[in-house]
Amino acid sequence: MLTQAMVTAESESLLRVDARRNRDAVLAAARKVFAEQGLGAPLDAVARRAGVGRATLYRRFPTREHLVRAIFDDNIAELVRVAAQAPDPSEAYLDTLLATVEMLVEDRGFVDLFNHSAAAEEAKIEIASRFLAVVEEPLRRAQEAGRVRADLRPDDTLLLLDMVGGALQPIGPGRPPDRAERAIALLLDALKPER
Question: Is-above-0.70 flag for pTM?
């Protein structure tokens, strides 16, 4: 026999699942809408693309800045998970780097737009700082294990990502189709320690 407490607990659980699904839909839609229309795109367009009402969007993300930061919060949380779950701790840095590159590829339009927005300087500094905190310890372990070059600094990781990001930019009709893959292969080779 179901008690009132069991029914309430089940209802709350379903509500949490529904709220999480809506949140994920809003963030996915925001990435696409911002990439297509710019960071100034109407938030109503995000709600429509996500298939949620305006009230749902504004309840969770009262401002555009809350929405943009939530996208990066999710990305940072995913990178923390990747680093923590690496089967070999000495590989966590490379796993995290490759996961970040994958995010750049998937959200290229949104990331490019964010990077070229002058209005987001404070957010950019905070996100970069949080990202570097994620890679610092995995980089140290990779260096101690001889997996990557010893002179690599945590902030070099941002430079490496900028280099890969540059390779993702369209440069015209002669652009090789495997340009991003080639850039990643060269990057990984450059990270190897000297023999």
Answer: yes
